[in-house]
Design goal:
The chain is α+β, with helices and mostly antiparallel strands and 447 residues long. It has two domains: 94 residues, Pdz3 Domain (Roll), CATH 2.30.42; 233 residues, Alpha-Beta Complex (2-enoyl-CoA Hydratase, Chain A, domain 1). It is 32% helix and 22% strand. Helix 7 runs parallel beside helix 8. The chain is globular and about 75 Å long. It starts with a helix and ends in a 22-residue tail after the last helix.
């Protein structure tokens, strides 16, 4: 008994020591956390002091709103290249882009020599109905000279409430004097999807992933089926130079080609933040072979689609290595002040690959030559994610990769990647340069 009591006493003493140690460590951790919070408040006070000094003593009266914007963006820029602050104006513009529709005229424009140049008027819009033509120069908007405006300023002037009128002054090549056109704004949908028939192959070009992309894809496939019927050899989904967009858009497009299985997973800082997105039954493409074209300009949502269909062997990826943006940004509204774009997660393909700073490697690599006359205008290699300062590292420890070319010829006959894809779907011979590649075999749906 005495021995037993002695052992018990020793046991309690040991437990007491452990409890005391835990209590001591807990107190130390609490003190450290308190000290860290105190330091943070001191730093915030320092920021306030600096701001007050600049506001009161700078040689010229500063724009205080711009000072705050710059300070916030400076903080976010220290995190990664894709986290940023959008003031109210930039937030509204971002919402327009993701919605894919707005009140406007329906013109795709660029800036040339200080004037707004029409790239082309979108079909069945106020611009096309009024007779606006490609290469027209817009020199005046409602009596205001365009010379001296930025492209964004000119675009903002042309957009506005539906059914309101606007006057454009246009300089057309060959015309003796400028044309005066009066247009009425209408609801304009950004065409994220364009399609056409290449003999016996359906060609679908997706330029961005916004709220209109899925509907555009369904309409494109429906139109191709109506024209080709059972004669279709397959489909080409062209994601070259598609910078991405909405995660939901990428998931819905991937789901259109998959009957089952995971599409993508996102993983945040904490394990309980992991989300997995799975395909629902149904294949919009009826199991037909699919080729996806990618290049150095294919990023983010484009890489989600390419990675999912590559892992499930539902499509063959042709082209060059994609950009390598494997992070997810959450838009956090900040009331009337705008919104925060914050990187909150990494995404992973169904097989668990992280594409961050690595990109999608095509099943068949096909380079696109840059003509000599374009060589001084087009970079031979785009800057991939791995070349961006402060980018997130690849969580899988995969060696980071540089970008690849992003040149796409306007002339389809000179588009080597497109021509290869067409030949591939038609069962043509593989060239000497790529015959050693082992492409994924397109999966045929069995009912």
């Amino acid at each position: 008994m005495m021995r037993s009591k002695t052992l018990s006493a020793v046991g309690y003493a040991a437990i007491g020591a452990i409890v005391a140690t835990v209590a001591w460590n807990g107190a130390s951790a609490l003190d450290a956390a308190t000290a860290s919070k105190t330091d943070t408040y001191r730093q915030l006070n320092l920021f306030g002091d600096v701001f007050d000094r600049v506001r009161s003593d700078y040689v010229e009266a500063p724009n205080e709103e711009e000072l705050i914007d710059s300070a916030i963006n400076g903080m976010l820029a220290s995190l990664d290249p894709h986290s940023s602050y959008m003031n109210a104006e930039r937030f509204r513009e971002m919402q327009v882009q993701t919605r894919g529709e707005f009140g406007g005229l329906g013109i795709e424009v660029t800036m040339e020599n200080g004037l707004v140049k029409v790239v082309y008027p979108i079909e069945d819009t106020p611009a096309s109905r009024a007779g606006v033509k490609p290469n027209d120069l817009i020199i005046g908007i409602d009596g205001t000279d365009v010379q001296g405006l930025t492209l964004n300023e000119a675009v903002d002037m042309m957009r506005g409430p539906v059914n309101t009128t606007i006057k454009l002054q246009i300089q057309r090549q060959g015309a003796d004097k400028p044309l005066e056109l009066q247009l009425k704004r209408d609801v304009i949908r950004i065409r994220a999807v364009r399609s056409e028939i290449e003999d016996d192959v359906g060609y679908i070009r997706v330029t961005s992933f916004n709220e209109q992309t899925q509907e555009g894809l369904e309409n494109a496939v429906r139109d191709i089926k109506a024209k080709l019927g059972s004669k279709a050899k397959g489909y080409i989904l062209d994601l070259r130079n598609n910078p991405g967009g909405l995660l939901d858009g990428a998931i819905s497009v991937s789901d259109s080609l998959l009957d089952r299985g995971e599409i993508v997973s996102t993983r945040g800082r904490n394990a309980d933040e992991t989300q997995r997105y799975n395909a629902q039954p149904g294949d919009l493409f009826d199991g037909k072979p699919v080729v996806i074209l990618v290049n150095g300009g294919s990023a983010s949502a484009s890489e989600i689609v390419a990675g999912a269909l590559q892992d499930h062997k539902r499509a063959t990826i042709i082209g060059t290595k994609s950009f390598g943006k494997g992070s997810v940004q959450t838009i956090i509204p900040m009331g009337s002040y705008g919104a925060l774009r914050l990187t909150t997660a990494r995404y992973f393909t169904p097989s668990g690959r992280s594409i961050q700073a690595q990109g999608i490697d095509p099943d068949i690599k096909v380079d696109q030559a840059i003509p000599a006359e374009e060589a001084d205008k087009v970079p031979s290699t785009t800057r991939g994610e791995a070349s961006l300062r402060g980018h997130l590292t690849n969580e899988n420890g995969t060696e980071e990769a540089t970008g690849s070319p992003a040149y796409v010829p306007k002339d389809k006959a000179k588009d080597t990647q497109l021509q290869y894809a067409l030949n591939f779907l038609r069962g043509g011979a593989v060239s000497e340069a790529t015959k050693t590649a082992k492409p994924n075999t397109p999966q045929v749906k069995a009912n």
